[in-house]
Amino acid sequence: MSAGALAIRGGSLADGTRADVVIIDGVVAAIAENAEIPLDAAVLDASGCIVGPGLVDLHAHLREPGNEAAETVETGSRAAALGGYTAVVAMPNTTPTIDSASVVNLVRQLGERAGLVDVYPAGAITIGREGRQMAPLAEMAALGVRLFTDDGSGVQDNRLMRRALEYASALGVTLAQHCEDSSLSEGGVMHEGAWSSKLGLPGQPAEAEELMVARDIALCRRIGSPVHFLHVSTAGSVELVRRAKADGLPVTAEAAPHHFTLTDACLANYDTVFKVHPPLRTEADRTAVQQGLLDSTIDAIATDHAPHTPETKERSMLDAPPGMLGLETALALALTELSLPMPRLFAVMSSGPARIAQIAERHGELGIGRAANVCVIDPSERWEVDSRKLASKARNTPYAGRVLQGRVRHTVRNGVATVKNGQAQR
Length: 426
Ligand code: DOR
Hints:
By secondary structure, this protein is of the alpha/beta class. The protein folds into two domains: 5-50 and 370-424, Urease, subunit C, domain 1 (Roll), CATH 2.30.40; 54-357, Metal-dependent hydrolases (TIM Barrel), CATH 3.20.20.140. The chain is built from 13 helices and 19 strands. It has helices at residues 73-82, 101-114, 137-142, 158-171, 182-185, 194-199, 206-223, 235-246, 257-261, 283-294, 310-313, 330-337, 342-356; strands spanning 5-12, 18-24, 27-32, 42-45, 50-53, 55-60, 85-90, 118-121, 147-148, 174-177, 190-191, 203-204, 227-229, 251-255, 300-301, 374-384, 403-413, 416-420, 423-424. The strands form five sheets. The protein has a five-stranded antiparallel beta sheet, with helices on one face. Strands 9-10-13-14-15 form a five-stranded parallel beta sheet. It has a four-stranded mixed beta sheet with strand order 3-2-1-4, with no helix packed on it. Helix 6 (194-199) links the parallel strand 11 (190-191) and strand 12. The radius of gyration is 20 Å and the shape is globular. The structure holds (4S)-2,6-dioxohexahydropyrimidine-4-carboxylic acid. Residues 61, 93, 151-152, 178, 276-277, 306, 321-323 line the site of (4S)-2,6-dioxohexahydropyrimidine-4-carboxylic acid. (4S)-2,6-dioxohexahydropyrimidine-4-carboxylic acid binds next to loops.
């Protein structure tokens, strides 16, 4: 699609400078106050808004192929664009698993066909995410895959993880770990603590996560290959990452919005919308995750967008699948619940994740000569989350009825508006 000329007029950059952004043929041509706007340019009004780089999500379950009843690449992409995203890393726990060149190509093609965000498939570390045999990392890396994970499960076998890190090091790719020692977490449906005792539900202890974080830090120290920690949720994990970074190790970490906004007390009514892995933790953990985002221990906010059909989420707490929606609410939750200065907000929602995903050439920064991936935020808009109005196919948001401050007004991907005045354009 030819992008032509587009101007985003009257907004301010993250540092408060007033600036118009002029885009020509998909590339940022000017960023300046009262910039000269070509006569044929389409104009997006950004008055009162903050104009920054398009957001990058390191962690979305788009469910295609295999579970199109819950989400498709197209519906997930639309949710992402409405959330301000221009790039999304698609998790490989699909059916079939993204563990071969053919499935990588399929997901990529589906992303291109939807045409709403750049979809970057992550590859699995092990075949079928079964934790037994290494997937063909080189075959997928040759196609440009830069992030590998068995997300949904952690790689349990120490030797296999070590070997995978050695391969990753040679290939220049990053392994992203879902930290959960299944020998401790098996059967647990929420955080193990006072609330799980009160509710009589089996719990997952914090140590199930922290032991795997500690193991991977030890392996990272030996092999030197980067490790990215997915959805860190406990104070102990945050502290382990903080110390590993102080030691100069190439580790990075992300936090999901639900881990800095919700706690295990939310499960008091046995509502499965709050069931998620890793589970919602205690207030002290929630505060530690927030602190990690503020002090740069945590590099990224990642949604862990996990759509599930109503039929499956309506099962009992023991049987319902874990996971909650995230793409359409992440930015507003960050704006409402965290007091991050705007440059730090874009660091954790755009440039940080772009660096981790190794897509910083196209994403993560708004600059002259760069691909025009832009997010325009109206910080003054207050809105109520209405689960019936979400673009996602699924409805499992834990935030229904919550009033949030700050909303995406426009999203521009590659010079083309995918969202205009809060409306998806396709
Ligand atoms: O809650 C979760 N849901 N955690 C995961 O790691 C996987 C995800 C899913 O795929 O539903």
